[in-house]
């Protein structure tokens, strides 16, 4: 076990992390942030995505040690108080989910995209989220939600 | 909302207490199921409690059933406290499968709710909560990450279990040794306070297996025919294995032209995004409580009780809503594993399957061999039709077409693979074979595939769905890249038009019109139908479980291609709302249209008929 210090959802935290621990396990088991979902644990489904220093990262293949000193944002940290992040609000408005298991990773993947590209077109959204699986088939609504959220964010 | 959250919170705390203290559960009076459990009752505080053994795996059931209660009692949807999937609290109103909630549970819950009010069912024109878009009650929790799946649940003092697995697909356990190894029949596993410790124990354990070989997939499918048993007519079952009219054989013998076509389907995996898990614990009174994410808590309870040699009343199953099911979460498996380890250790034990276990140790959608033997009369009308499905099942056998003489048959076989339920099950293969055969005839007779279908359809709603879909799609007759399919599945009428292009193959757009009668929650219905069509793309084009002579080779999502964002075309999925017509269940049917419509599109592009699913792999 080694001590790991990083900022999670705006708060500096120090946790114990076993050698070789993945970020997903530190978040879920160490910090109880279970909004980060395991789907494949090999980097292929996107459901475990969070933001690390604003970039979308798959926590199942990210060594926990790699985020030392960095800023991690999980789905639990996206809203401001009771006010949902525009992406959360857009997913809610479009009902861009069914079982909802892919949703947290999808929203953070989309947040990573919007950070790079403030007005992503349909194709840009599809390309950026192509590594995110939604087995329920909510993709068309997700694309709409992401574009709607990007517009809200552009308008500030 | 507040109270709903409260109840969920209450359930969670109550359960924590059960597992932590080992004490038997004292269910508060207002939550306890009565002798004959009711769906709806007014609670002591005047509020409405509702109960169902059904579960919500993304098909929007919590919302729909809350709408039903709210509608009959004239209360806001958010005020209904609905307990789902708890064998101690809810009635056993059937597993969540086969699109039965809308035709069966909805009327039952509405009737009970109306009885609480003391009046008749509300007529459609009086509906307040039904028949309009109702946002998913889980929505806010889903987008904030607060929604709890079984994978997210932890209880005090919980240990972790790991199951020892053979490398081979079919294997019997010969011996299992090592520190902490628990053995029972073909089960061997270990558990420890942490997952890392349990994995270490499993790594050191020695298990020997005797394995049986596996036939190659094509041989397996060919063997279905030799082993198939002819169906015995029985129209009392949900899926009659023989549906016939007139004398198909005689009509075939006198047909002007005939066609014999053979279709095959590979076995495929459900690949629900959340892997299954369960937490099992014995109370001091010997009762076993299991929290899991399954579709059929009462089936799981019966199976667990049998496996553990217990009375059903001594087992309690509590469902945390699964992150996708699609049929793969109906039977017990991980629950029994967790229960065996809990029994041996005296601890609450959690077992979670890895993605590889999901692929290999669950069951597959059955492989199939489907033959159509059909004939047309001198005018080109289909006069005789015989369809035989070997192995996959009887769902979807009933043709939506008005064939004078037909015989639609399910021939059961013995398959060497673990196979079971899947969204729509055999209806996908049966529709693929039937619609492809119709499409072949239209092409052979140089008839327009839409007009040719319409000429065989008597049902006015199906006709109108096809015509409306053609119009929305802008269908202008046969054209390279365009394909269509239609069906009448489980009382729903659907038509799907697709446009595709080659080099590389891609789907450009899809237009669907779906008529399931009254749309109780139109937005959710649209989501379900659209999702099912999308899910169908994978099975149609790429999905196939691969095996060698002893092992399943498909073990990871990385080498199992399911639909991704860039595979999903622009979609127009339109719901026809027929308020006065009793609604049909719609969670499954959409998936059955994708493959035949894509097959027709591929045929129009290449001139070659694809006879096997998946079509591109
Ligand atoms: S769980 Fe991390 S990508 Fe699938
Ligand atoms: S909503 Fe179920 S996996 Fe996306």
Describe this protein's structure.
The complex is a heterodimer of chains A (156) and B (617). Chain A contains five helices and five strands, in the order ββαβββαααα. With 156 residues, chain A is an alpha+beta fold. Chain A folds into two domains: 76 residues, Ubiquitin-like (UB roll); 70 residues, Orthogonal Bundle (DNA polymerase, domain 1). A five-stranded mixed beta sheet of chain A has the order 2-1-5-3-4, sandwiched between helices. In chain A, β1 and β2 form a beta hairpin. The longest helix of chain A is centred in the C-terminal third of the chain and has 17 residues. Chain A starts with a strand and ends with a helix. Chain B has 15 helices and 22 strands. In chain B, the strands form five sheets. Chain B has a seven-stranded mixed beta sheet with strand order 6-7-4-14-11-12-13, with helices on both faces. In chain B, β11 and β12 form a beta hairpin. One FE2/S2 (inorganic) cluster sits at the interface of chains A and B.
Order of helices and strands of chain A: EEHEEEHHHH
Oligomer: heterodimer
CATH class assignment of the largest domain in chain A: Alpha Beta
**Fourth-tier CATH superfamily name of the largest domain in chain A:** Beta-grasp domain
The order of strands across the largest sheet of chain A is 2-1-5-3-4
Number of helices of chain A: 5
Give the tally of structural domains of chain B. Answer: 3
Query: Spatial order of the strands in the main sheet of chain B?
Result: 6-7-4-14-11-12-13
Count of alpha/pi helices of chain B = 15
